[in-house]
């Protein structure tokens, strides 16, 4: 076996032959001491990392997930593996065997499983910093308030609650407990949406004149996750509160403005038993102070769509799809044609968890605090009222109806 220095000499000799046509590289190679490369199994220096380091596990902010349903199990729990500042430490569920199975798979201590009755015992678990509420909409307020009262920060799914009054209770409770409250509007952390907003704010689209956004899917009463959505007392409404809220959000974040007037039309098949309590199709329009408008829609019967378009005086941005869990796309269409925009991949769910964790750690106000969720719930109420009135209704700056 050659000595290290012999092998180094041989390496340089070989390198000399190959580098005859590259004197600069050769000079550099000779000037530097060639590295000693171990020939057997051996540890090596820390590699250069391509992304941000995750926090050590013990230092990550601990999350309790409340409600182990379709969204929690398929999107949120797997996303903890990609989070850098957040970790899953507790589960809250009404189904103990399911919760134990989930706990074992995700490395959560079975002692950190709670049911809804003993939920308040989370107060005694110092590992839990944040409670992530992923329950049917009508239950968001109760569990957010109980979490704040137990001294925990709250991340709550959309819509924040079914009434503005419930949103206000959630905000007041978090404030009294000096805890953070954020609505988990994932689109703000989705890289294509974030890029489209950045282009709009940078003036790349010119002045935004119109936003259109359409969110549609088929609702299926055979699917457990769709069953409570058809019960108004649990969902608070139909397609508007469930997926139309993405269209509403898109209009607000693409224009960067708050609407001053709203009009709406609702169409629900009368003979379809799915829609005994909640509406199907909602078309709604918003007017903004700049004169920009939004034409928005949602339904539970039209073929799947998750589309956002912002039409500016210079170009328009097309997010199609825009709010899928994966596979979103952004194109900019201008004088010179259509250009697909590449963005760095980012798991929007992990990014949401990490943002919340960083806010807890640093004391920063979340990007999407309770007031943001409250505004949407007020606007949703105004949209229903405008449909009922059959005419344009004016809005106050806080999203509630004027007059
Ligand atoms: P699921 O019905 O699949 O999950 C809800 C879970 O809540 C249930 O599995 C159950 O968990 C618990 N629960 C407690 N009481 C009830 C009750 N009376 N009826 C039904 N469930 C109950 O719904 P989703 O996961 O689709 O939605 C949950 C929330 O997440 C909603 O607010 C929804 O708007 C939001 N969501 C957000 C999405 C996003 O992209 N941001 C996407 C999908 C949903 P357990 O069995 O553990 O007790």
Please sum up the structure shown:
With 403 residues, this protein is an alpha/beta fold.
Layout of strands and helices, then pairs:
Elements: H1 4-18, H2 23-31, E1 61-66, H3 70-79, E2 86-92, H4 96-106, E3 113-114, E4 130-133, H5 140-149, E5 153-156, H6 164-176, E6 181-183, H7 191-201, E7 208-216, H8 224-227, H9 232-235, H10 239-255, E8 261-267, E9 281-287, E10 293-299, E11 305-312, E12 316-319, E13 330-334, E14 337-341, H11 348-362, H12 370-389, E15 393-394
Parallel strand pairs: 1-2, 1-4, 2-3, 4-5, 5-6, 7-10
Antiparallel strand pairs: 7-11, 8-9, 8-15, 9-10, 11-12, 12-13, 13-14
Helix pairs in contact: 5-6, 6-12
Bound molecules: NADPH dihydro-nicotinamide-adenine-dinucleotide phosphate.
